[in-house]
Design brief:
Layout (H helix, E strand, L loop, with lengths): L2 E4 L6 E4 L7 E3 L6 E3 L24 H15 L11 E5 L6 E5 L6 E3 L6 E3 L45 H7 L11 H47 L7 H18 L5 H14 L6 H16 L5 H5 L6 H12 L5 H17 L3 H12 L12 H15 L3 H17 L7 H10 L16 H13 L3 H5 L2 H4 L3 H18 L4 H13 L5 H12 L1 H4 L3 H9 L8 H15 L7 H5 L7 H13 L4 H7 L6 H19 L1
Antiparallel strand pairs: 1-2, 3-4, 5-6, 7-8
Helix pairs in contact: 3-4, 3-26, 4-5, 4-6, 4-26, 5-6, 6-8, 6-9, 8-10, 9-10, 9-11, 10-11, 11-12, 11-13, 12-13, 13-14, 14-17, 17-18, 17-19, 18-21, 19-22, 21-22, 22-24, 24-26
Length: 631
């Protein structure tokens, strides 16, 4: 009868004929030598003498081969393959486990979870446990060295039934199909990308602005200390005043934690510094800068409550102080026009009227005056209100001027009042009369201003008689009408041509004519007077004139400010101005404000001296402030 046994090494079960009982043979599966168990004693048949006993016995090797063949044939059969009734797999879109009937194998069907169309895989044949010829046990001795290095990921070896999907995709053997995105999904993804980009950009800008603010604060503190006890302690009054005014403007915008009352003290120190101004003309330009910073102190109720701003009543009272110190009427008029515009922009229209009356109160008309300056000032304020569409307030100015002339008919004419009435009440007569064909200088001023409003300026200014007239007379006429053009923002070619002509001539026989040029230099950028014209005027300033160097530097500054580029070459022109003058210092501030990339400028500042260095750093700080405001 057959002998049933199993291998001690691989546990594989076998059946062998009884003739192999007690023999040693290699395991047909793992090749480990094993001994076929002997038959029980009661099952051994009686020994029979074979007639062929004399035949030579087979060798042991032949017996082993025969035993292996017999065992292989008699190995227990594996059960038949079994096919499952359902196909189970994971959805490639939502990763949900899916179970579908086997008849859908190789077809397309919707996923129960995400409802997307899937390709159902073919059913796999499930085999019951049986021998795997691919997995052979290690026959080496237990102490032998074994290979422990991990196999490369994704490689195909003899133990793999199939190649991985990732490997096929990487090799390009198959192409993964994607379902096209819907319109809503595309928009959502685009918005997500845009939000990420914008957030990154804003973060970058905020970081840069923050770094700029930190550096600006440090420089401003250093400048202030330098004024108190450093190299600028002995600087001229106008230098200190303009620097302190710039520091106040910077802190109002960039340091909300500093109370407005403390910033006011800084401006009071600036005003006090002007008692030691080096020249009256430089003092007037410093007062103009100071008045601009004082107006910035005013604010609404919320800012006043948070100590970020001061009440407008307090600001108005403080602003009157610099207005009492101007020496050039036209520079004072520029300051009044700018203050009026600031009041109106802040919603303080009534205060603009009150301040104009406050500034002009007590001013008497001199008998030898050809022009009524008081009415001129009121008219400039009125035109600024009219331009801002504050009609009721502008009418109050009109009535004030009208009353002034009706109560005192001998009051001199006012060219700006003539222009204001022509704008606001074109069809009504003026409150005073002037002769159109007169040779009187005041009448000609009135005629020029009215012609500017009526766009007929070329009739007189473009005529041969005007071009051949006395240079001083032409200078005075052009200064008056040019200031009006700058207020109204008019760009007239014939006026620009005549201005370039008169500035190039450099007519300066006395202080009055110099003051006319100084007024033109203050509004030169609005009038578009060329840089070359101012450069020629600077060469014609009489050296015997008082404040010769400051006047020349002021004309060079006007030439400098007209230029649009702010490269390293512009510092060559700035250095032509008088050393330590307000004009040269303001040129450095201008470069700092307008240089988009200040790296080269900072390097230049390291080589220069005071006060240009402090003005340059102040300009850079104010430039960062201006960039933040634009955003």
């Amino acid at each position: 009868m057959p002998v049933q046994f199993s291998c001690n090494a691989c546990k594989k079960k076998f059946k062998a004929a009884d003739k192999f009982a007690g023999k040693t043979i290699p395991c047909p599966n793992c090749k480990v030598p094993l001994i076929v168990p002997a038959l029980p004693a009661d099952s051994v048949p009686p020994e029979i003498t074979s007639p062929q006993a004399s035949v030579k016995t087979k060798s042991q090797a032949e017996q082993d081969i025969e035993a292996m063949a017999a065992l292989a044939l008699e190995e227990t059969k594996q059960e038949e393959d079994v096919v499952p009734q359902f196909i189970q797999f994971e959805c490639t879109f939502c990763d949900e486990k899916v179970s579908l009937p086997i008849d859908l194998g190789g077809k397309q069907a919707p996923c129960p979870g995400c409802r997307r169309i899937l390709k159902v895989p073919m059913p796999a044949v499930v085999k019951k446990a049986g021998p795997d010829w691919k997995k052979q046990p290690d026959k080496r001795p237990s102490g032998a060295l074994r290979k422990e290095e991990p196999e490369l990921e994704g490689t195909w070896n003899s133990t793999m039934d199939t190649v991985s999907r990732d490997a096929l995709l990487e090799a390009g053997a198959i192409v993964e199909e994607y379902e096209p995105l819907t319109r809503a999904e595309k928009i959502k993804r685009a918005v997500t990308v845009l939000v990420v980009l914008v957030s990154g950009l804003l973060g970058f800008l905020y970081y840069n602005s923050y770094q700029g603010k930190v550096n600006g604060d440090a420089q401003i503190a250093k400048i202030e200390l330098n004024i108190k006890s450093g190299e600028l302690a002995n600087a001229s009054g106008e230098i200190k005043a303009v620097l302190l005014a710039g520091i106040a403007s910077y802190r109002l915008s960039e340091n909300p934690e500093i109370p407005a009352a403390k910033i006011k003290k800084t401006l009071q120190s600036a005003l006090a510094s002007l008692d030691k101004a080096s020249s009256l003309l430089e003092k007037d330009f410093a007062l103009l800068e100071l008045s601009r910073s004082i107006v910035e102190l005013g604010g609404g109720k919320d800012d006043v409550r948070d100590n970020k701003k001061l009440k407008w009543d307090e600001v108005q009272k403080f602003l009157k102080q610099p207005f009492e110190s101007f020496t050039i009427p036209e520079i004072k008029l520029i300051a009044l026009k700018e203050a009026t515009a600031s009041f109106v922009a802040s919603g303080e229209t009534d205060r603009a009227l009150a301040f104009a009356s406050q500034v002009l109160s007590g001013s008497a008309v001199s008998k030898d005056k050809k022009i009524d300056d008081h009415s001129d000032f009121l008219a400039v304020v009125g035109m600024e209100l009219f331009k801002a569409q504050k009609i009721d307030a502008s009418k109050q100015i009109l009535e004030s001027i009208r009353t002034r002339y009706t109560s005192a008919p001998t009051t001199p004419v006012s060219p700006y009042a003539a222009a204001f009435f022509t704008i606001a009440e074109k069809d009504k007569p003026l409150p005073f009369a002037f002769t159109k064909d007169s040779n009187n200088e005041a009448d000609i001023y009135c005629l020029l201003c009215v012609d500017l409003i009526n766009e007929k300026l070329e009739t007189l200014v473009g005529s041969a008689n005007f071009k051949n007239a006395d240079a001083v007379f032409r200078l005075n006429c052009l200064t008056k009408v040019s200031f009006l053009a700058s207020i109204l923002g008019k760009d007239i070619s014939v006026l620009k041509d005549e201005l370039n002509r008169i500035v190039s001539e450099g007519v300066m026989p006395n202080v009055d004519t110099v003051q006319s040029y100084l007024v033109l230099s203050a509004i030169s950028q609005n009038l578009k007077i060329s840089s070359e014209s101012w450069f020629k005027a600077a060469d014609k300033v009489p050296q015997a004139m008082k404040d010769y160097k400051q006047i020349k530097s002021r004309f060079l500054l006007a030439s400098f400010l007209v230029k649009e580029d702010t490269t390293s070459a512009t510092l060559v022109d700035a250095n032509k101005m008088e050393t330590a003058s307000l004009s040269k210092a303001m040129a450095y501030r201008h470069v700092g404000i307008n240089s988009k990339k200040s790296t080269w400028f900072k390097e230049a500042l390291l080589k220069t001296s005071e006060p240009e260095k402090s003005f340059g750093y102040l300009g850079i700080a104010l430039s960062a402030d201006n960039n933040l405001k634009k955003k």
